[in-house]
Amino acid sequence: MTSPRHSISVHYARTFLAGLERRGYDCDPILQRAGLHRRLLHNAQVRITPYQLSTLVQEAWRLSDDEFVCLGSRPSRFGIFPLMARQALHGSTLRSVYRRSCHFYNLVSEAVQFRFEEDGDVARLSLTLARPELDPDHTLCEFLLLIWHRFPSWMIGRRIPLRRISFSFSRPGHAAEYRLMFPAPVEYDQACDGFEFSRELLNAPIVQTPSNLRTYMNRAPLDWFSRQAYYPIFTRRVLDQLEQSDSLATATMEEIATAMHTTTRTLRRKLTDEGTSFQDIKDGLRRDTAIHLLSQPSEPVAAIARTLGFSEPSAFTRAFKHWTGVAPSAYRKTAASE
After folding, report:
1. HTH araC/xylS-type domain: from which residue to which, for each copy (predicted)?
2. Exposure pattern of 214-228 as b/e (b: 16+ CB <10 Å)?
3. Does 106 share its domain with 185?
4. Full domain range(s) for residue 290
């Protein structure tokens, strides 16, 4: 099975729109283009596809002419990031990417101040919002850190392993999303918002070209929301095996353990140490597959149930409602309405 399965908490759709609505913008057309319904926004269990969130953010950029989506003290005009990216491409190493990008935004934006430091064997990127009260759910802060990790990683053609993420705020209710966003331990109530990684990586060469950059920016922000999902090592290996399986529905722990050249007992212990289980991983994958397939209006619910290994649509409905808080038919209906 190879269909996209990664899903994202509806929290981000709700909070991206919150800044626009505080400024008086009508967001219903944005929701319609993203295939979402307003009633879904306030159900914390609902999850959406990367494509839906990407469409929502793209439409928000166009409506507000602000890449900070009205969550900063001043707008960052739509198109500033691609301009910065072209400037960063003129450098030669990861070090130049961070120096150029931080210098660029510190010149053109009063809403956020970036700081890039090298200290011993550590490289550190941090940011300060001029008016953090305009970003009460920390969405802009998280979004900027996500971009400043993923865009430089793309520039050098490999993921930058982070040592830690620090946030100035306390652990939020949506903190479970961070394992999909940031590949590092997260620390709260810190002096600043930022991340650290090995200074050695700063000499990594830029491998992208202007042609690649155009394609990358045309897809933005989709790749930022869908390309990298970070899990502990055995959780990731189980996910990889399940994604390669010809039948996710019937895949067993014994089969996956054999494919990984380990025993079922060892695999169960390793997953327990990582705070999960085989069934949790499989159910999460089935959930995300279901969300993806339900976003395709031509796929009948009964067919989706069969694909995911449910003997009856009613069993699938119960499971989906347990996973997301709404029935699959209701999820599809509300997403497609208006």
Report:
1. 236-334
2. eebbeebbbbbbbeb
3. yes
4. 233-336
Q: How many CA atoms, within 13 angstroms, populate the side-chain half-sphere of residue 118?
A: 12
> Buried b vs exposed e over 43-65: b needs ≥16 C-beta within 10 Å?
eeebbbbbbbbbbbbbbbbebbe
**Does residue 135 fall inside a structural domain?**
yes
In angstroms, the CA 242 to CA 248 distance is 6
Identify whether residues 151 and 268 lie together within a single domain. Answer: no
Same domain? For 113 and 210 the reply is yes
pLDDT tens per residue across span 2-46 = 344 568 899 999 999 999 999 999 999 999 999 898 888 888 888
Same domain, 248 and 189: no
Low-confidence ranges of the chain (pLDDT < 50): 1-4, 230, 338
Nearest alpha-carbon partner for 259 in 274, 277, 246, 273: 246
Over residues 86-139, the pLDDT tens digits come to: 999 999 999 999 999 999 999 999 999 999 999 999 999 999 999 999 999 999
Angle at Cα 142 formed by Cα 140 and Cα 148, nearest 5°?
100
Same domain, 222 and 237: no
For residue 324, give the 3-state DSSP assignment. helix
Same domain, 140 and 163: yes
DSSP letters, 61-112, are HHHHT-TTTT-SSS---TTHHHHHHHHHTTSSBHHHHHHHHHHHHHHH-SSE
43 in any annotated domain: no
- In the DSSP assignment, the letter for residue 128 is E
Amino acid letter, 161: P
